Every structure is written in structure tokens, then in C-alpha cells.
């Protein structure tokens, strides 16, 4: 782990310790009920995915201000640094998890600074607090429901506000 990575992990841990907590089970069950209601309302998993992303986007546009105020972090200097901050500080701050960060081979970090920097990254959630009590029916899985799509929206909304 690089020194920057360790620093971001420490910031995330520190902010989590200072944060007022909401009961995790209440949060998880409420999110599950929201997804169930969206499925009933839209009866189309593609539309449910869009609504979850849209809700997340709206949350992200507001959460970024809270995040910056709590952490005191400055603008990231690279896309790779942005990915590190999202993984090690943002997810830790709000969900107390640290997703595994990886870069697809095509966009791997070059050793030569004159080469293009990565343009995409992958966050793998080993533990997903949103899905802790979720037991999706087979048709939801096969029908393409992205149960945690709200997280994609949060990231997009937050990044748009600081770009």
C-alpha cells in the first residue's frame, strides 16, 4: 500500500470514528423497502435501475459538500487519486466499508508520466451493507435489477459537483 493509500485509509477511519451513526439495520431495511416499492411502482427492472441511479445522483450532489467539510481534502491531482479517495475515504465515511480498487488492464497506471492516465476504475464491494438483508427473487436477478445502483448515482453526482 502506497503512502498516499495509507493516508487516505487513515483519513477515512478518522472521519468514521467522528461521525454520528444511524442504526445499520434500519438503514438497510429501509433501502430494501424502497427498492421493493420501486419494483411495484415501475414493474420494469430497467426503469427501477434508472430511478435508483437518479436518486443516488441527487444524494451525491448534496453529500459531496458534507464529505469535503468533514475531510478537509483538496482537489485530487489525478483520476487514480480520485479513485483512491472514493474507495478509501468516501465509502468509509458514509458506509464504513472500503471497496477493493482496481484498474482495468487497458487503463492500468502507466510508469511513464507522458502516457495516458487511467480513465476508468472498478470498485469491488466485498461487503455490501445495502444488500445485507436482501434476498432477491430469481426474476429480479435474471431481469437485470442492479440492487445497489444508487451507489453509482451517488458517485456520479458527487463527481459532477467537483469537476
From TrEMBL:
GO terms for cellular component: endoplasmic reticulum; Golgi apparatus; TRAPP complex. Keywords: Endoplasmic reticulum, ER-Golgi transport, Golgi apparatus, Transport. InterPro entries: Bet3, NO_sig/Golgi_transp_ligand-bd, TRAPP_component. It is found in: Endoplasmic reticulum; Golgi apparatus, cis-Golgi network. Pfam families: TRAPP. Its main location: endoplasmic reticulum. Coiled coil: none annotated. The keyword Transport applies. One of its GO terms (biological process) is macroautophagy. Transmembrane segments: none annotated. Gene3D superfamilies: Trafficking protein particle complex subunit 3 (3.30.1380.20). The keyword Endoplasmic reticulum applies. PANTHER family: TRAFFICKING PROTEIN PARTICLE COMPLEX SUBUNIT 3. Belongs to the TRAPP small subunits family. BET3 subfamily. This is Trafficking protein particle complex subunit BET3. It comes from Kockovaella imperatae. The lineage of its organism: Eukaryota, Fungi, Dikarya, Basidiomycota, Agaricomycotina.
Amino acid at each position: 500500500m502506497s503512502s498516499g493509500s495509507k493516508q487516505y485509509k487513515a483519513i477515512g477511519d478518522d472521519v468514521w470514528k467522528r461521525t454520528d451513526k444511524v442504526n445499520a439495520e434500519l438503514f438497510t431495511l429501509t433501502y430494501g423497502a424502497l427498492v421493493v416499492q420501486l419494483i411495484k411502482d415501475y414493474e420494469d427492472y430497467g426503469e427501477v435501475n434508472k430511478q435508483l441511479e437518479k436518486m443516488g445522483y441527487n444524494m451525491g450532489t448534496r453529500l459531496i459538500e458534507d464529505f469535503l467539510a468533514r475531510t478537509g481534502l483538496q482537489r485530487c491531482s489525478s483520476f487514480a487519486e480520485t479513485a483512491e479517495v472514493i474507495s478509501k475515504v468516501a465509502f468509509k465515511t458514509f458506509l464504513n466499508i472500503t471497496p477493493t480498487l482496481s484498474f482495468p488492464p487497458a487503463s492500468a497506471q502507466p510508469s511513464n508520466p507522458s502516457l495516458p492516465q487511467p480513465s476508468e476504475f472498478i470498485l469491488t464491494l466485498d461487503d455490501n451493507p445495502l444488500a445485507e438483508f436482501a434476498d432477491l427473487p430469481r426474476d429480479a436477478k435474471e431481469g437485470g435489477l442492479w440492487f445497489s445502483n444508487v451507489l453509482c448515482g451517488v458517485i456520479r453526482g458527487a463527481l459532477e459537483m467537483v469537476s
